[in-house]
Every structure is written in structure tokens, then in C-alpha cells.
Specification:
47% of the residues are buried. The chain has a single domain, classed as TIM Barrel (Alpha-Beta Barrel). α1 packs across α2. With 299 residues, it is of the alpha/beta class.
């Protein structure tokens, strides 16, 4: 999943793709580099960022979604607002990537149920301006798993088909730096909920701190891509359904390495399930068609 930030204040690219034409061109370059999905977002979720109006968010994302889907791209919309989700799906998006898991907008779950699209529910404890104050866990892996299980129950109660749901541990969101590593090391615990798992580690603070030099200064976001690719390879080996990244080529190569590694260790004649990169329709090991169709828009 390649990231297309249509924002002036992203932590990773500082607004380089804020103008619609620049965002569309960037999305196409990510596709050429190996992206299977393009995640278009119009509101920054970096720590401390302020919210934008729904009108501004719509103005940012809709032209980009329309242009990319018109060119045949599979597009997800990164939003916490039901209205933006619905308008983006109308414009061609096939997946709603909600970092709040539906907690930010009470209408989101009902809207997703009505639209019948694939939905990513991320672990979340509050908007960017407060999330760093909500980082206390008894056991970060078990607490995140339990809270995501609650999201699954709420989605089912709202009429969302569980087969269309992807879970995301929310790395960096209401997490201390050290809390992200157990979540990555125990992706199987999240996978035990029976849904595909999306991993979004790309360029995040905990990688910058890991790579800090002798002076203790974190490596800036643009210097974290090799570490991101390493996470992508390990996440693929651990069974992740998808990785969300800013720089696609390195992670695409890393996932190919992981797939070859896995295949080499699979007994002859045993079924293999290479990573699928399109929104789920049933079980995480199913392999949906390569591109969405009118009859099955969630593949």
C-alpha cells in the first residue's frame, strides 16, 4: 500500500504532494514502483496535528481518488469521517482505511456496512493532539488485541461483514516507542482474531530512535526507508496481509524476498499462499482477483 498524502503538514514528506496534480503523479510513480493499493489521505495524523474541516478534506482527496481510479488504480481512502469515506467510495475507492477504527465518527460503521466496501480498523485511543497522553498498557499486545476485538464486535453489530475487515495494530498511535516492537513481534496474536493484518511502520518515530546516532538524535523520516523495508520483510514472513509504506520499491523487493524464503521452506506439494495485496473478501489466505470488478468491488 503506497501512501499518497494530500496534506501540507505530513511528518514524512512535508506537503510535497499537496497539490492534486502532484499527488496524482506521485500515486502513479508508486504504482510503477510496485504498489498494489494507493492510500489517499487529506488529513495529517502526525502527533500534535490539528484537525481540518470536512470540506477541506473532501477538496483534497476527491480529485486525487477520481484521477487515480480513472487510470485503473486500486485506491483506499485514509479518513476517520463517514462522509469523506462515502464520497471517496462514490469516486472509486475500494477500501476505507480508518485510523480510528470507527471511534472518531459514530456513523462510520453504519456507512461502511451500507457501502459494502473493505474496511481497515486501526487500534486508536484518540486524535493526534491527545494520543501521546494515552500510552499506558498493562500488556500492550493483549490490550491492543482486546480493543481490536471490541472494534470487530461493534462492526458486526453495525452490519459490517467481518470478511471485509482488516485490522491494524496502530504502530506509533498512542504507543511509546518501545511498545511498537512487541506488537510487531507478536503479529500472530492479532492474526488470531481471524482477520488480515495491515502493518504501518513506515518512517515512524520508533524507527528514527532505533537508528539514532551517537549523539542520540533520531534519524529523520527520509532516512528510515531501509529500516521500513526490513520491517516489511519480517511482517510478510509473519503473515501480514499488507504493509503501508511511503517508499514502495524497497518494501516491494523485501516482500518478494519474504515470499521466496517462505516458498523455499514449504514442503513439496503443500499449498502456498503468497501475500495478497488487495482488500479481502473472505479469509486472509484467499487470493482475490487482480483488480476490482463491478460485481466484486472489495477484491
Amino acid at each position: 500500500m503506497g501512501v499518497v498524502n494530500v496534506t501540507p503538514d505530513s511528518f514524512s514528506d512535508g506537503g510535497r504532494w499537496f497539490e492534486p496534480d502532484a499527488a496524482v503523479a506521485h500515486g502513479r510513480s508508486l504504482l510503477a514502483a510496485g504498489a498494489d493499493l494507493l492510500d489517499v489521505g487529506g488529513e495529517s495524523t502526525r502527533p500534535g496535528s490539528a484537525r481540518v474541516t470536512v470540506e477541506d478534506e473532501l477538496a483534497r482527496v476527491l480529485p486525487v481518488v477520481r484521477a487515480l481510479t480513472a487510470g485503473g488504480a486500486a485506491v483506499s481512502v485514509d479518513t476517520t469521517r463517514a462522509e469523506v469515506a462515502e464520497r471517496a467510495v462514490d469516486a472509486g475507492a475500494v477500501l476505507v482505511n480508518d485510523v480510528s477504527g470507527g471511534l472518531a465518527d459514530p456513523a462510520m460503521h453504519r456507512t461502511v456496512a451500507r457501502l459494502g466496501v473493505a474496511y481497515v480498523a486501526m487500534h486508536w485511543r484518540g486524535h493526534a493532539d491527545v494520543m501521546d497522553t494515552r500510552v499506558d498498557y498493562d500488556d500492550v499486545v493483549e490490550d491492543v488485541r482486546r480493543e481490536l476485538a471490541q472494534r470487530l464486535d461493534e462492526l458486526a453489530s453495525a452490519g459490517v461483514d467481518p470478511a471485509r475487515v482488516v485490522l491494524d495494530p496502530g504502530l506509533g498511535f498512542a504507543k511509546r516507542g518501545a511498545d511498537n516492537w512487541p506488537l510487531l513481534a507478536h503479529l500472530d496474536r492479532l492474526g488470531s482474531l481471524g482477520r488480515p493484518v495491515l502493518v504501518g511502520a513506515s518512517r515512524k518515530r520508533f524507527l528514527g530512535h532505533l537508528l539514532a546516532g551517537a549523539d542520540g538524535a533520531p534519524v529523520p523520516p527520509a532516512g528510515r526507508d531501509a529500516a521500513t523495508a526490513a520491517v516489511s520483510a519480517l511482517a510478510a514472513l509473519a503473515g501480514a496481509w499488507c504493509v503501508r509504506v511511503h517508499e514502495v520499491a524497497g518494501s516491494a523487493d523485501a516482500v518478494r524476498v519474504a515470499a521466496a524464503w517462505t516458498a523455499a521452506g514449504t514442503p513439496a506439494g503443500a499449498p502456498t499462499h503468497p501475500p495478497t495485496t488487495h482488500p479481502p473478501t473472505d479469509h486472509p489466505t484467499d487470493r482475490p482477483p487482480d483488480r476490482p470488478t463491478d460485481e466484486d468491488v472489495t477484491t
